[in-house]
Amino acid sequence: MIKTLNNQLTQYEVDFQSSIAEAEEYKHLFTIAPEMKTIIEAHFLEARNQSNQLLGKITAVKNIIGNVESSNQ
Q: Maximum distance among all alpha carbons in the chain?
């Protein structure tokens, strides 16, 4: 069970980093193409929302891993 949780945690962390990089790129794109603000902003907000959801999942999995590990001691 811990192995499965750790694998899930790793995947969430990779996805989180990707989502953060995506949001940062949208911010960069806005500086070079401000005329596309509406389109870029929609994508940025979606990437930021995804990052927030992934951060919540990371926190939840870490909490459960901590609980399982402490109950095994």
A: 58
**Six-digit token string for 61:** 């999995």
Q: pLDDT, tens digit, for every residue of 15-32?
A: 999 999 999 999 999 999
CA distance 30 to 22: 13
pTM of the entire predicted model: 0.87
Structure tokens given for 39:
């389109």
Calpha distance 29→68 (Å, rounded) = 43
Name the H helices within the chain: 2-32, 37-71
Q: Does the pLDDT at position 73 exceed 90?
A: no
Q: Give the span between the Cα atoms of 44 and 50, in whole angstroms.
A: 10
Rg for the chain, CA atoms, rounded:
17
